[in-house]
Amino acid sequence: MGTVIEVEDLRYTYMENTPLAHQALAGVQLSVEEGECVAIIGHTGSGKSTLIQHFNGLLRPQQGRVRVDGQDLSDPGLDLKGLRRKVGLVFQNPEDQLFEKWVGDDVAFGPLKMGLPLKEVRDRVRWAMEMAGLSFEAMKDRPTYALSGGQKRKVALAGVLALRPKVLVLDEPTAGLDPRSRKELLGRIEGFNRREKMTVIFVSHNMEEVACLADRIFVMAAGQIVAQGTPREIFGNREVLLQHRIGAPETVEILYRIQGLGYPVDVGAYELDSAAAEIVSILRPQGVKSHGPGI
Amino acid sequence: MKEPLIRMEGVSFDYRLNSEEVVRVLRDVSLDIYPGEYVAIIGHNGSGKSTLAKHFNGILKPTEGNVYVAGFNTKDDRYRREIRRRVGMVFQHPDNQIVATIVEDDVAFGLENIGVPPREMRKRIDAALEAVGMSSYRNRPPHHLSGGQKQRVAIAGVLAMEPRCLVLDEATSMLDAHGRREILQVLRRLHQRGMTIIAVSHHMSEAAEADRVLVIEAGRIAMEGPPREIFQRQELLRRLQLDIPVATRLAGRIHERVPDFQPDLIHPREIVDEVVRIAGKKGAAG
Amino acid sequence: MAREFELTRNITVGQYLPTGSFVHRLDPRIKLLACGILILAIAFCNSYGGNLIVLAFSCLLFRLSRIPLRYGLSGVKPAIPFIVILAVLQLLFYGDIASGGRVYLEYGLIVITSDSLRLVIVSALRFIEIIFVSSVLTLSTSTTQLTHGMESLLKPLGYLKFPVHEFSLIMTIALRFVPTFAMEMEKMIKAQASRGAEFGTGSWWQIFRRTKEMLPIIVPLFRVAMERAEDLILAMEARCYTPGGTRSRFRTYQTTFRDGLTLLFILCFSLLLWMYPFPY
Q1: Rounded Cα–Cα distance for residues B114 and B119 (Å)
Q2: How far is CA A58 from each of CA A73, C193, C209, rounded to the nearest angstrom?
Q3: Is the pLDDT of residue C6 over 60?
Q4: Which of the four pLDDT bands, split at 50, 70 and 90, describes residue B198?
Q5: Domain segments of chain C: what residues?
Q6: Which of A78-87, B138-147, C67-76 has the lowest mean pLDDT?
Q7: pLDDT, position A31
Q8: For position B34, what pLDDT does the model report?
Q9: Would you call C179 an interface residue with chain B, using a CB distance cutoff of 8 Å?
């Protein structure tokens, strides 16, 4: 296990040297280990999108350093195509980008562009579709326009998976999905990370989602990483959440209110069961607490 | 008994895919919406909830059955304007419903359409922007606003027309948690002032705000009742794969171990109150 | 390289620069009219003297509207190649026609006389003046005001059954969606590049290949545009829009004494420019 993404003092300004110049990244410091699942959270405009677009070389560092799997992105001789295969980037509402008439063709776009032999392309499409939760046999010859929103998103996801990336980067993967599709997609993403050992980096506004998926959380504000840690550490840190206008899972919100009334509860207990245990412990003071000390 | 503002009688709706194929999206739906009510319509994508919503102001007309808005049948085109003035609608995509290059002008759009004189418009626009808390953005171009702000502008555009009912067709589904909270706050305020609100959503947590919840599945009304009752039928909700609010689930877990703890809570504040009720104020003293 | 995808960010149509000056506060209709009259006068002015006066006047306009002159100059910059080509062509071919005055140079077919030189310099000046004047208009007037002003001026065409109002609404909506589509396009290019798409790999004559490379962007963009249009129609209908129906107007412009005076001044200035026999 090594470090797969390493960012040092990264700065980026849009429309540099014009009156509209706007600094999106102001010295970002972060590193992601192989096989991790990390979440990047922060208010709109905090620089999350700009940051993740550096991971596959869509943006190149203006100042500072980004290293992906040992390759320096400032290197002028960088193999961009190789990098974009290694780091699969799934944009927000990726279903917008489908353009082929048939599902199978759209998923095959990436592998075909790589110039792989047809058999290999087919194998990859099959694998990617199954991974995304689409039956290859049943879905490959369906027209893309006739699919439901949730299915379209899976096709778009398969289109990126077909590149067989080592690192999967997702921007708001479940935005706009209904709870049924959301739950399924989250399960899939968890599978990529746990079973396929892919490194997963995702941006999300949904704290329930962050709480259930992420091993580690980076909090961004004004173009910098202002806090990082496990979900328990981050959600237990009320000041950071409030200061940067980031919500917390509802369980944490409830625990905070209870703590505010003077009851000793561990506000970092974001999982439903541990939150329930925290509350039970103050209702039955003689009971044994399941997690760490209060306050 | 008050007269219903919207009455649906045995409404079915067929969506025509092409010349041969027809899909039945709504099946024999009957319901009444009364003035001043806050109704949440919950369902998955493809359940027919959006199609249902578009019947409330006559954008869609039933294949079978009738819809009456303030007594006007939506099938009669002569009343189209009367109906749409009474029932305003806000849609899903914040970007796709703003027509003007300046916030204020966008709010004016509907007023221009119904021929309100300019002097009167000024007053109504100010009041509408005030009601959604966007007064200070009146001269901004809309594309610099956040999603939640754009939706508030869209709501203001409808409010300015002084409707009796506001329909939100998944108006929060493209927003982040922060934007969603902004919109829910605005809705709560409007409801307190007596506005009838129909909120279509796939988030159960938004239903907790409502007086009455309708769950739509496969074009039919699958459940109906006040949110507290709906959330207690967890078996059915789970089968429909709908999410249950965290407060309700948490209350359930606690109730299993502390039987005295009420299981039928739906708001976070109710959990806190219940903790105080059982543990007593002694916690406050330390 | 780093800016490979940054072409479309923060695009602004027109380039309204609100400084709240006297010029900004003028009635947009008056500004449009005045601008039209001035451009007409410039087009007919072919003396050195007249053009220098107009040039000075247009610099004064920048001053009056409190807009830095460099905004005007940045508008001239992209036009420089055009001005140069025009000048060269005029020098080459107009020597015969404008053959009056003193002959400066005669080399084969190329004849440069004082008259043809005047033609070249005056047209370059006129070009710059027109850019200056129209820049002041677009920099001091928002696109909304421009469309409203245009609609108001075109109103008489309504009697000829020209759909003035619809025309202006379409203009407004188009302007409203330019930034949206620019963002959308940037995102689409990046998303397709992320899954291996490459753009502009063929040479310029391989039109087929280059078009094919653009399909992954054009097809989805078009579809998204259609979806947006459908949504927009629904939203407009829900707000009681009926095509061709009578509407009232939120923005009404009251022409003030100051507006009238401005127009009168521009009119006199233009007439003077046109009539006065400048010695040079």
Answers
A1: 14
A2: 10, 8, 23
A3: no
A4: very high
A5: 18-163+251-280, 167-243
A6: C67-76
A7: 95
A8: 96
A9: yes
CB contact under 8 A, B250 and A179: no
pLDDT for A173 equals 95
DSSP, res C159? G
pLDDT in tens, A61-97: 999 999 999 999 999 888 999 999 999 999 999 999 9
Q: What residues contact C7, with CB distance under 8 A and at least 6 apart? A: C186
Q: What is the pLDDT of residue A288?
A: 47
A3-248 is classed in which CATH architecture?
A: 3-Layer(aba) Sandwich (3.40)
Tens digits of per-residue pLDDT, C92-149? 776 666 666 777 777 776 777 777 888 888 889 998 999 899 889 988 888 778 888 8
- Side-chain half-sphere of C189: how many Cα atoms within 13 Å? 18
pLDDT of residue B272: 94
Q: Model-level pTM?
A: 0.84
* pLDDT tens sequence across C23-35: 999 999 999 999 9
* Inter-chain residue contact C239 with B100, CB threshold 8 Å: no
Please choose, from the candidates B285, B246, B258, the residue with its C-alpha nearest in 3D space to the C-alpha of residue A281.
B258
Model confidence at A289, pLDDT cuts 50, 70, 90, reads: very low
Backbone angles phi, psi at B70, to 5 degrees: 50, 40
Q: Nearest Cβ partner of B45 from A150, A258, A282?
A: A150
- Beta carbons of A14 and C9 less than 8 Å apart: yes
Substitution target from C248, C249, C251, C252 for chain B, most B beta carbons within 10 A: C248
Retrieve residue C42's tokens: 């410039």
Q: Own/partner pairs for A110-118, CB < 8 Å, 24+ apart? A: A110/A85, A110/A159, A110/A160, A110/A162, A110/A163, A110/C195, A110/C196, A111/A162, A111/A163, A113/C195, A113/C196, A113/C197, A113/C198, A114/A81, A114/A85, A114/A163, A114/C196
**Strands B64-69 vs B212-217: parallel, antiparallel or unpaired:** unpaired
CB count in 10 Å sphere of residue B107: 30
> Locate tokens 């279509």: which residue?
B200
CATH superfamily membership of B35-59+77-227: P-loop containing nucleotide triphosphate hydrolases (3.40.50.300)
Structure confidence at residue A295 (pLDDT): 43
Check: CB of residue C244 under 8 Å from CB of residue C166. Answer: yes
Q: Are strands B72-73 and B64-69 parallel, antiparallel or unpaired?
A: antiparallel
How far apart are the C-alpha atoms of B62 and B67, rounded to whole Å?
7
Nearest CA distance, C24 vs chain B (angstrom): 15
B213 pLDDT band, cuts 50/70/90, is very high
Query: Domain limits of chain B?
Result: 35-59+77-227
Which residue in chain A is spatially nearest to B257 when comparing CA positions?
A280
Of A178, A238, A228, whose CA–CA distance to A41 is shortest? Answer: A228
Asked whether the beta carbons of residue C10 and residue A91 sit closer than 8 angstroms, the reply is no
CB burial of C98-116 (b: ≥16 within 10 Å; e: otherwise) equals beeeeeeeeeeeebbbebb
Could you give the residue range(s) of every CATH 3.40.50.300 domain in chain A?
A: 3-248
Q: Give pLDDT, residue C204.
A: 64
Per DSSP, the residues of C56-116 read HHHHHHHHHTT--HHHHHHHHGGGHHHHHHHHHHHHHHSTTTT--S-EEEEETTEEEEHHH
Tally A–B CB contacts below 8 A.
101
